[in-house]
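Sync notes, pocket subgroup
Present: LS, DG
LS reminded everyone that the earlier model was apo-only. Rerun requested with zinc ion included. Inputs:
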Amino acid sequence: MKYVVCVPDGCADEPVEALGGRTPLQAAAMPTLAALAARGEVGRAAVIPEGMPPGSDVGNMSILGYDPAQFHTGRAPIEAAALGLTLRPDQIAYRCNLVTIGADGTMVDFAGGHPTSESAAVAIEALAAALGTDDVAFHLGVEYRHILVTPASWMDADCVPPHDLTGKPAVWPTGGAAPLLRQLMEDSRHVLADLDLDANHVWLWGQGTQPVMPSFTSTFGLDAALCSAVDLVRGLGVLTGIEVVDVDGMSAGYDTDYAAQRDCALDALADGADLFVIHVEATDEAGHAGDVEEKVRSLERWDAEILTDLVAGLDQIGPWRLLLLPDHATPLNLRTHTADPVPYLLVGDGVAATGGTYSEAGVADLPVVAGHDLMRRLVAPG
Ligand SMILES: [Zn+2]
């Protein structure tokens, strides 16, 4: 049996006026998805456990079959894993954004003017030279997203994600370790002032210890691989021993090569992988941008460029099952994530065909199941 998990990031939504009161999932032409839903099981999944933040780190951890309430320690250590970092028990990782803060203390840009990775490298090198120590280390990530490794004694701080502060007064960390963080953030201003960058500060948040996750293979007895352009998802792969595959043309934007991601999955499954996870960020990106047209188009591309030939390809390989769901909703009207349950589709050999419609309304009356339980059900003997 082959298994595929499809994750259109943040695709779940709410009724949108510009779509005549329909959601993007209802408005998008997705004939293959509709046919799969008609011969599968649809339902409603809580991918974000109660009380946890509705982030992609939490939601994708659920989708991979791990209960975030048990395994999630923070966002930064997952991204650190994507960079190949392993934290010792006496270390933690902070996410270190390059940000732009106005003279009046407003968080002008949580992405620091979107520096290229090349100019960010100059900034991180300068920060490391001026502020790094044996115990406090800057690690270069991508564009404005970097990692700071600190002693575990720096853990006690309440930090606000900078993207939640856009256009508002920057809310500085509080808690026992806050003086250390604030000093470093203040010092970063002097270092970055010497460089020709829009970013003028680092912002520390999302800290945590190294999560301890049993491997996917030991948990589910299957060899798995994934493709995603997003560090968080790739980091979850590293932490669980799911092979992270690079794909030419794959990106975290609207322009990702959907067909290449599909073919990557089919090739890996034909080559012996038991399970493959296809993660595409575009739907979430459109949700954050409030771009109705782009969100609908991203879903239609999922159907035309991934699902249709994926199903045909899987039929060639042998018996298969497929699970499709987003890691959270990113409603166009809100332009941010919500913790609401999301629709899921489970379909394939040995899955009872209750049939239904894959949309928010199509599952609205169904009971909510735990998101992390769906992986176990996907791979359960038929
Ligand atoms: Zn997400």
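DG: The pocket of zinc ion is lined by residues 9-10, 56, 59, 284, 327-328 (CB under 6 Å).
LS: The longest helix spans residues 292-317.
Action: DG to write up.
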